[in-house]
């Protein structure tokens, strides 16, 4: 056989594709590949949706924080049900103000301590609830990141075991008979890595964003408690000053009246 004829025969040989490997897989391998494709779609949907959700929450927080900085009286705010639409910061403000007005005691130092205790407890509960919202769906994404490589490895081991088992039943074992089953089995590992590699980068990025937003939320709650306490102290000082001004002055001793 001359060289041009050999090249012509090589050109006529069809190169294997991923669909060829999929067709050579056993039933378990095909089921695992299909499951990994579904997991990949779920992972990308979660990552894109979570990124958009966190970006929206951060935008709402920054917008509300700028509006709150222009507000003169924090304790006079009454957001009500609108707080959910205004973002996590607004929910914390509504919870803190509602907790402060829940105890209608006298304007004394003890009353202030009781009220601030209610405010701090409400802020802690609010931060915990918002943290759950920030970290929602992250467990699902983390499970896909962890489970996809193992699922692909399971398909590979199963496929190789099946390929060697079928070879044992044949009279002669050749590489041409063994290669299709092994290549189909290795497809599951490739599919598992294709699912896990993008997901682990997305998971780490989203987890960092969640931790950043949670830290900002905790700092905002702390500054919110300080601002409420400061407003109450100023109000008490103003009330005390007005009482001093309205108190009638007593006549001096020896004035002659």
Automatic annotation (TrEMBL):
Q: Which residues cross the membrane?
A: 32-52, 139-161, 181-206
Superkingdom of origin organism:
Bacteria
Compartments, as annotated in UniProt = Cell membrane; Membrane
Which InterPro entries does the record cross-reference, listed alphabetically? ExbB/TolQ_transport (IPR050790), MotA_ExbB_proton_chnl (IPR002898)
An example Pfam family from this entry, by short name, is: MotA_ExbB
Question: How would you describe this protein's topology in the membrane?
Answer: Multi-pass membrane protein
One GO CC term, this protein: plasma membrane
Which residues does the UniProt record annotate as the domain MotA/TolQ/ExbB proton channel? 114-218
Q: Which family does it belong to?
A: Belongs to the exbB/tolQ family.
Name of protein: MotA/TolQ/ExbB proton channel family protein
- The scientific name of the source species is Ruficoccus amylovorans
